[in-house]
């Protein structure tokens, strides 16, 4: 069994390489490690970086990053319900409805009731939506994608699983990041409404 196979024995096991790197870092410093604050600071920096890229995307393609993610999910998944889109892009159903409203206003998607059950509404991309999605830059910064691809596969997996573990910790029962009827978490300083379109934080 090679290192990669051993690493993937369980997604819930802590990566040995990451553990030894962390222990080595602790051994080299005399100051107490405040990991929660370091993680929150890193998350804020990620949030700001995403917001900046979303502003650039909106200026070039006149579409926000969440709208582009939603549009591409619809194109990839075919006719989809709002609930299915919500699960696919990990956004609350109420937020998805707002995104779909904006995409429909721009003529990028259309809503159609199901033939067998008229209560079900399916979303499909228009030809204009497909064209825009094909021409728009990726919602993920290219330099980030290039940087990740340059790393060894084990390190890419370590970063991915570490972030997924943080999300799981934040979404534990009773501590969900976005519970029903609640806005975004204050720790990330994300506005719950009234953000200007150019901020990159609107959907």
Automatic annotation (TrEMBL):
Classification via SMART domains: HTH_MARR
GO MF, any single term: DNA-binding transcription factor activity
Biological process, per Gene Ontology: response to stress
Keyword Transmembrane set for record: no
Transmembrane residue ranges: none
Domain HTH marR-type: 36-168
SUPFAM superfamilies hit by this protein: Winged helix' DNA-binding domain
InterPro entries: HTH_MarR-typ (IPR000835), MarR/SlyA-like (IPR039422), Tscrpt_reg_MarR-type_CS (IPR023187), WH-like_DNA-bd_sf (IPR036388), WH_DNA-bd_sf (IPR036390)
Keyword terms of this UniProt record: DNA-binding, Transcription, Transcription regulation
Top-level taxon of the source organism: Bacteria
Positions of the UniProt region annotated as Disordered: 177-203
PANTHER family reported for this sequence: MARR FAMILY REGULATORY PROTEIN (PTHR33164:SF89), TRANSCRIPTIONAL REGULATOR, MARR FAMILY (PTHR33164)
Designated name of the protein: MarR-family transcriptional regulator
């Amino acid at each position: 069994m090679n290192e990669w196979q051993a690493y993937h024995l369980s997604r819930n096991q802590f990566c040995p390489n990451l553990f030894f790197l962390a222990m080595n870092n602790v051994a080299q410093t005399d100051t107490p490690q405040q990991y929660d604050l370091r993680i929150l600071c890193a998350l804020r920096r990620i949030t700001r970086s995403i917001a900046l890229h979303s502003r650039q995307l909106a200026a070039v393609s006149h579409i926000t990053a969440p709208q582009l993610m939603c549009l591409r999910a619809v194109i990839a998944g075919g006719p989809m319900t709002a609930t299915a889109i919500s699960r696919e892009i990990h956004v609350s159903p109420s937020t998805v409805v707002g995104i779909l409203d904006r995409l429909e206003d721009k003529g990028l998607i259309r809503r159609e009731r199901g033939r067998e059950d008229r209560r079900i509404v399916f979303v499909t991309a228009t030809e204009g939506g497909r064209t825009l999605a094909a021409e728009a830059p990726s919602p993920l910064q290219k330099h980030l994608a290039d940087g990740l691809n340059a790393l060894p596969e084990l390190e890419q997996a370590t970063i991915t699983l570490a972030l997924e573990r943080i999300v799981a910790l934040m979404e534990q029962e009773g501590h969900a990041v976005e519970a029903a009827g609640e806005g975004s978490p204050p720790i990330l300083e994300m506005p719950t409404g009234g953000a200007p379109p150019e901020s990159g934080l609107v959907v």
